[in-house]
Write a structure and sequence with these properties.
The protein is an alpha+beta fold. The chain has 11 helices and 12 strands. The protein is rod-shaped, with a radius of gyration of 52 Å.
């Protein structure tokens, strides 16, 4: 099932929002738990120092062997006072075997490794290290072991629970709540901006594409975003202009050769004139084409036309340039636009190739005779017509000014009359500077 770009953007925004909120919440909770743990350790340290001093004083005052019961009662009293002041949640006095002699408080404690811990403390022999914190992540407890001077090797243990997730969440829910609101509001705003900046122009382009596909080549769109989307709309408009030109060319193209027809030919000539570009217009005419068409039929005539078109294309590929142009006005009338420096080579190629390859369209008998017999144009009489040749008339604005397509074709018509004289195909180039000067010819 297809989804819209807008739906995909909304989905991505929702996922990014969830990721941002989750990441922020995790960071805030972790920071809060760490702060709570550090505060508890700090508070316990202050209380542990006070308890350490008091316990050392008691053990100096009481004789444990004679007054152990009184000693323990006094210690319990000190522990209860400390619990009331919030020093820890549970306070215990651990003997050297790892078991509590006194245990005051509400937490459920675990003593699996206490003996090992105490033995490690005793074996270290470090008198400066009087407080050792331990985090019991398994049971979610923080233990503070306090070493103090006493003859029995007792160790004081302060215990409090790690800050729970719920407790931390209670501390940070307000910033989290406002952060969630800000992220949601920001993503809504971002979604609206993306819809306006990106999705709306895309919808415009999509609808314009459909309109153009339906034939509306006059459609123009304007997207003012000062970025690639605006550039795309300009390119889109340029495309519609070119499509309109291509359509006009296709409608005007000759149905047989697919070459551009009269309208496009005129546009190409006028474009070179307006651009003050030097050019040579080669105007083509097939000599004795009608007689050939009458003798061999329309299909053979079409083959001669296609052969001419192919030779013209080959001449540009061999001796012309990418700016050269070929047009087909209809029948056996072709037109070629090229640069002055390429005109001679192109004309020579056309004359040579046409003269050699046109014979393949005649029967062997007619080639041996050197002519065909057909009715004359102006009278009902059988006349001998030589094998078809091609005449090329050249017109250029190198030596004289040409101001219009009509002027160029009129000059070409005059030059073509000279080119068609004689029995061999020839190329005649108009070299006149003005109307009073005679033409000179290059004949092949």
């Amino acid at each position: 099932m297809r989804t819209t770009l807008q739906a995909r953007l909304i989905g991505l925004l929702i996922l990014s929002s969830l990721f941002l909120v989750s990441t922020f919440t995790a960071i805030q909770l972790n920071n809060q738990i760490e702060k709570t743990r550090e505060f508890n350790i700090y508070q316990a340290r202050q209380g542990a120092l006070s308890l350490k001093d008091k316990l050392q004083e008691i053990f100096q005052t009481f004789d444990e062997q004679k007054n152990k019961a009184a000693l323990m009662n006094e210690i319990k009293s000190i522990f209860n006072t400390a619990l009331e002041s919030g020093v820890a949640e549970t306070i215990s006095l651990i003997n050297k075997d790892g078991y509590p002699e006194i245990l005051e408080g509400n937490l459920q404690l675990f003593f699996e490794d206490e003996k090992t811990m105490i033995e490690g403390i005793s074996a270290s022999g470090d008198s400066t290290r009087w407080m050792i914190p331990q985090v019991d992540r398994k049971h979610k407890l923080t233990n503070i072991f306090v070493i103090f001077d006493n003859p029995s090797g007792y160790v004081l243990k302060l215990t409090f629970s790690l800050s729970s997730l719920q407790k931390a969440l209670n501390e940070v829910y307000v910033p989290i709540f406002f952060t969630v609101l800000m992220v949601i509001a920001g993503n809504i705003l971002l979604g609206a901006l993306l819809s306006w900046v990106v999705i709306s122009p895309i919808k415009i382009l999509n609808q314009a594409t459909k309109d153009i596909a339906s034939g509306n080549l006059d459609l123009r769109i304007h997207i003012s975003t000062k970025d690639e989307l605006e550039e795309l709309s300009d390119t889109f408009n340029y495309m519609t202009i070119e499509l309109k030109k291509m359509k006009a060319r296709a409608e005007n193209a000759n149905p047989l050769t697919k070459l551009p027809g009269n309208i496009v030919i005129q546009e190409e000539v006028e474009k070179r004139i307006k651009g003050d570009k030097k050019f040579v217009l080669l105007y083509c005419d097939l000599d004795n084409f009608k007689a050939f068409n009458d003798k061999y039929g329309v299909h053979a005539g079409d083959e001669a036309i296609m052969l001419t078109a192919d030779i013209f294309k080959e001449s540009i590929a061999k001796s012309g340039s990418s700016d050269d142009f070929i047009g087909h006005e209809g029948g056996d009338d072709f037109l070629l636009l090229t640069s002055p420096e390429n005109a001679e080579a192109i004309a020579e190629y056309i004359l040579k190739e046409f003269g050699g390859r046109i014979k393949n369209l005649y029967s062997k008998e007619d080639i041996q005779k050197g002519y065909i017999e057909a009715k004359a144009r102006d009278r009902d009489q059988i006349v001998r017509f030589p094998v078809m040749t091609i005449s090329l008339a050249g017109v250029s604005n190198v030596r004289r000014e040409i101001t219009s397509y009509a002027q160029a074709t009129n000059i070409a018509a005059d030059v073509k009359k000279i080119a068609k004289k004689g029995k061999e195909g020839k190329f005649v180039m108009d070299r006149r500077v003005g109307e009073e000067n005679a033409m000179t010819r290059d004949i092949r």
